[in-house]
Each structure stands twice: as C-alpha cells, then as structure tokens.
Amino acid sequence: MSVTAIIFSIFISAGSLAWGYHGAGMDGVVRGIGLLGLFWLVSLWRRWRWFSVAGLFLSVLLSAVGVWLGLAIGWMVSGALFALLAWDLTEFRLRLQQLPPREDARGIERRHLLRVTLLAAAGISIGFLLERLW
Questions:
Q1: At residue 109, does pLDDT exceed 90?
Q2: Rounded CA gap, 76 and 16, in Å?
Q3: How far out from the chain centre does Cα 82 lie?
Q4: Three state DSSP letters for the chain
Q5: Which of 8, 21, 37, 109 could form a disulfide with 26 if both were Cys (CB 3.0 to 4.6 A apart)?
C-alpha cells in the first residue's frame, strides 16, 4: 500500500517540477528532473535507502531555485511537498519493517497514509492559493 503511494509521490514530485520548469522553457533542466525521478524509482526498487534523502534535497533545491527564478509557485510547492511525502513514506516503510509481528502494521500504515494525505491536500491547496495571490 505504501509502495504505491511512494511511487505516485515520486511521479507527482518530478512531474510538478518538470512542468514548472517546462513552462519557462528550460528543457535541459526538465530532462534532468526526469532522470532524477527515474533514478529515485530505481533506487526504490534496488532498496538504496540513502537516495530518498538525496532525492528530497535535490527536489527542494530545485523548488527553491524555481521560486527564485520566478517560476510558477504552485508547481514548485507541489514538487517539494510530494518529494517530502515520498521521503516520509520511504522512512515510514523502513520503520514498519522493524515492528514486532504482534503490532497492527496494516492499521498503523493506513492511519499514517491518511494523515499524510490530508497534509498533502492542505499543502497543495496553500501552494495553488499562493499561485493565485502572488
């Protein structure tokens, strides 16, 4: 369940950043963002735990640079937010694997996904509200 959410978060993060940079005509950066998203998905498959931190850092950096360059704030906030969500879910999944068998891992996972979904919805709403007001 959480693996699907991680994959969607990576796609949405990379897609949002790429769309924001594409709107400014920066096609080289768009290709780099696509490679970042692809490498992040491969790292998930290969179980490279360290890459979720690197992916989060690079995504937030790209978002900050995009805001500094005057790109669409909504897309930049969305890219950073979903990168944060992918990182959080990756770390959460690792912690779930360490739970003793007597714990209700499915219930804990469901509640965590609900909380981060509500957080993501609020963050996206604020990001696109800023886009309209900015």
A1: no
A2: 7
A3: 3
A4: CHHHHHHHHHHHHHHHHHHHHHHCCCHHHHHHHHHHHHHHHHHHHHCCCCHHHHHHHHHHHHHHHHHHCCCCHHHHHHHHHHHHHHHHHHHHHHHHHCCCCCCCHHHHHHHHHHHHHHHHHHHHHHHHHHHHHC
A5: 21
CA 123 to CA 41: how far, in whole Å? Answer: 23
Per-residue pLDDT at 39:
95
Residue 1: pLDDT band (50, 70, 90) is: low
The pLDDT > 70 percentage for the chain reads 99
pLDDT for the residue numbered 104: 82
Q: Where do the structural domains in the chain lie, given as residue ranges? A: 2-133
The 10 Å Cβ neighbour count of residue 133 is 7
Q: Contacts from 47-55 at CB under 8 Å and sequence distance 24+?
A: 49/90, 49/94, 52/86, 52/87, 52/90, 52/91, 53/87, 55/10, 55/83, 55/86, 55/87
- Cα separation, 49 vs 56, whole angstroms: 12
